[in-house]
Amino acid sequence: MRAEIIKGVVTYYGNGYKFKFREEAIHKHTTTIIKNSHIEVIENKTDLLLGDLKTKIIDEWFSGENQTTRENNNKKARARRRNDWLFNSRNKSNYRYWR
Fold first, then answer.
1. Do the beta carbons of residue 51 and residue 36 sit within 8 Å?
2. Residue bearing the bigger pLDDT, 82 or 37
3. Which of 11, 15, 55, 57 has the greatest number of CB atoms lying within 10 Å of its CB?
4. Rounded Cα distance, 99 and 20, in Å
């Protein structure tokens, strides 16, 4: 498994396949969980169907990163909800938000 930058596009190479992201901006996103729809398979010399190959790619290349991103996103959301609840429970003028 390796990756190369060719004409400003990161291309990933695996055993019998080659792929890239549909949008290069995904490389800069810190909260995106990579899904099948983010991947564009350029070459498939495996016996797998396209959907199965994309699932395999995500499992092999991005499963650890996706798990870390998911945990960080959930942690931020819990903190945001906790802060919103504390603010609203202390500020009775915001009671209308809880009806």
1. yes
2. 37
3. 57
4. 47
